[in-house]
Specification:
about 625 residues, alpha+beta, Calcium-transporting ATPase, cytoplasmic transduction domain A, Rossmann fold, 4 domains, seven-stranded mixed β-sheet, six-stranded antiparallel β-sheet, 21 strands, about 55% helix, about 15% strand
């Protein structure tokens, strides 16, 4: 049994449904009273049915009329129902009062169904919020203390036990586990995480205990950003919906004007009786109301946004869901988008008499004192080797680094830099270096005791899914795939050739990327830009649709972009394009169906083959069908 204290909450949450139920009960009692000839009792009960079912619509309609000086659909329905009641009292044909009550009842039921549909979409989106945890177990002075998430500080160490929800984004300090990230990234396969890996709030820990370090404020966590973006998407109205809403107000005026003419002219022009004329005018007000047309867009787009959120694609508003389906060209940033953005040693070539380990040991002895990304890549590659740090290390910015190691001078850097300290560079090694550079790799030379001992090739690795994602986009009919990068021409063209990019612009500054997006828009009209960095923000803002990488993306890129890929999965761009096209297709179907049904009902009304309740059922039924059609987008 429901507790009494909860009844007001339930009534408020489901007010449309309560109104429909109460109206139907009173309508049934009024009809029974009429059947038994209890006219007085019926005339007391039926007005109560009008009030129960039509109060909210009347309030909203009058508010719109007096505050905004506009007519809306709610007021048209109430006027039609009251007109039917007045006509019934005048002619003492009390079934017309029943017709008016049926109109209000079906309108209330339609409102309840619309409310249910919107709540279902809303629940699907906001289910993300249930993933958040209120507290975290923080290590303080060797003890576990429960701390509210909002009070966590940078550097706090958090303990997460097996089976618990990760409370906030963090880096693993200790432990190994398998995490279920499906709710955040859309990836159904659990992911293994170990020391140094980043974990996300809202993901489910597996069988291993973890110790995490808070590396960013809780409000900046991936899940919190997801929730903010979803909330923003729900409050913004896309251009197509704005057009329909503006259309509604003008359309309502036209319908009222036409209704007045239809209530006055037919007796003179068509020799109808006044009763028939007013009755047909009332039916016209009902069937011509644009309820279905108003419901043709937003439920569809919100369902599409919910579907995207489940797949790890966050649309900031419905306008971008519409736009992504129209994209004809897509420009990609290279570093951090098509590539991982992390330099790695991909090849080590020693000279005769030395091996790979020896070359890496010498290079690591020097680079362990460097903060350059190339140095970090070399140290990472040598982590399983025994090495010691060089002394008297001196860096030569843009050229190389030198020092003393095991009582010998050692050097790492460009060919020109190393030439200054060795007698000659081996010809075969130089040829290998040239081939590696032609392949888009960065080559550093390693020398010891006035002798070149090898070269190390370093590259930013292409994302494994990049080529597949681009192939999917081409299969969808995207006309041009473009790569924009500040990197050199050779590296850019090497990567572009490997993954199937059509056009390459290299050695670009941020403003250059912006100008190129503008040029592409003059040619292809609707252009998307995919990026992750601060330098991509101007181009993301200029593009018809800006798409940011959710994990690798900078805060500026995430704020500027229109769509966020939660797990940085490039293949989700093709899924977003498909979802956008599908949304656009369903919206067009809904609008066509709504207009066609309005025209049909108007025609049948003037043929005299429709009653007020049938007109109401047809009108409200078409509205419900349009809403249910939009909810199809909740399915993958």
């Amino acid at each position: 049994m429901l507790q009494r204290s909860r009844l007001p909450q339930l009534a408020e949450k489901h007010s449309e449904a309560f109104a429909a139920i109460l109206c139907s009960g009173l309508l049934l009692l009024g009809w029974i009273a009429l059947q038994f000839g209890w006219i007085g009792l019926a005339l007391l009960i039926l007005p109560a049915a009008y009030v129960a079912g039509g109060y909210e619509s009347a309030r909203e309609g009058l508010t719109t009329l007096f505050k905004e000086k506009e007519l809306d659909v709610d007021l048209l329905m109430i006027v039609a129902a009251l007109g039917a009641a007045g006509l019934g009292l005048w002619r003492q044909e009390y079934y017309l009062i029943i017709d008016g009550a049926v109109l209000i009842l079906i309108f209330a039921i339609s409102g309840a169904l619309e409310d249910y549909a919107m709540q279902r979409t809303d629940r699907s989106i906001r289910s993300l919020m249930s993933l958040t945890s209120d507290t975290a177990q923080v290590l303080r002075l060797g003890r576990e203390v429960s701390v509210p998430i909002d009070q966590l500080e940078l550097g706090d160490q958090i303990v997460v036990k097996p089976g618990e929800i990760i409370p906030t984004d963090g880096l693993i300090l200790e432990g190994f586990s398998t995490l279920n990230q499906a709710a955040i990234t859309g990836e159904s396969i659990p992911v293994e995480k170990t020391i140094g890996d980043e974990v996300f709030a809202g993901t489910l820990n597996g069988n291993g205990a973890l110790k995490l370090k808070v590396h960013q404020p809780p409000e900046s966590s991936l899940l919190r950003r997801v929730i903010r973006l979803v909330e923003q998407a729900q409050t913004e109205t896309p251009p197509s919906q704005q057009f329909i809403e503006r259309f509604e107000h003008g359309y309502a005026r036209v319908i009222v004007g036409a209704g007045i003419l239809l209530a006055v002219l037919p007796p003179f022009l068509l020799h109808w009786s006044w009763e028939t004329t007013i009755y047909r005018a009332l039916i016209f007000l009902v069937v011509a109301s644009p309820c279905a047309l108003m419901a043709a867009i937003m439920p569809t787009l919100l369902s599409g946004i919910a579907n995207g959120a489940r797949q790890g694609i966050l649309f900031k508003n419905g306008a971008q869901l519409e736009q992504i389906g129209r994209v004809r060209a897509i420009a990609f940033d290279k570093t951090g988008t098509l590539t991982t953005g992390q330099l790695k040693v991909c090849e080590v070539i020693p000279v005769a008499g030395f091996d790979t380990a020896a070359v890496l040991q010498v290079a690591t002895a020097l680079e362990s004192s460097s903060e350059h990304p190339i140095g970090a890549a070399i140290v990472q590659a040598a982590q399983k080797l025994d090495w010691s740090r060089a002394t008297e290390v001196q860096a030569y910015p843009g050229r190389g680094i030198a020092g003393s190691w095991r009582q010998q001078l050692v050097f790492v850097g460009t060919a020109d830099f190393v030439k200054q300290f060795v007698t000659h560079l081996p010809l075969e090694l130089g040829q290998c270096a040239d081939l590696l550079e032609q392949d888009g790799k960065t080559v550093v030379w390693v020398a010891q005791a006035q002798q070149a001992i090898g070269v190390i090739a370093i590259a930013d690795h292409v994302r494994p899914e990049a080529a597949r994602a681009i192939a999917q986009l081409k299969k969808l009919g995207i006309e041009q795939i473009i790569m924009l990068t500040g990197d050199n021409q050779r590296t850019a063209h090497s990567i572009a050739h490997a993954i199937g990019v059509d056009q390459v612009y290299a050695e670009l500054l941020p403003e250059d990327k912006l100008h190129i997006i503008r040029q592409l828009q003059t040619q292809y009209k609707t252009v998307a830009m995919v990026g992750d960095g601060i330098n991509d923000a101007p181009a993301l803002a200029q593009a018809s649709v800006g798409i940011a990488m959710g994990v690798a993306g900078s805060d500026v890129a995430l704020e500027t972009a229109d769509i966020v890929l939660v797990a940085d999965r490039l293949e989700k761009i093709a899924a977003a394009v498909k979802l956008g096209r599908r949304s656009h297709r369903v919206v067009k179907q809904n609008i066509g169906f709504a207009i066609g049904f309005i025209v049909l009902l108007i025609a049948v009304n003037f043929a005299g083959n429709i009653t007020l309740p049938i007109g109401v059922v047809g009108h409200e039924g078409s509205t419900v069908l349009v809403i249910l059609s939009g909810l199809r987008l909740l399915r993958n």
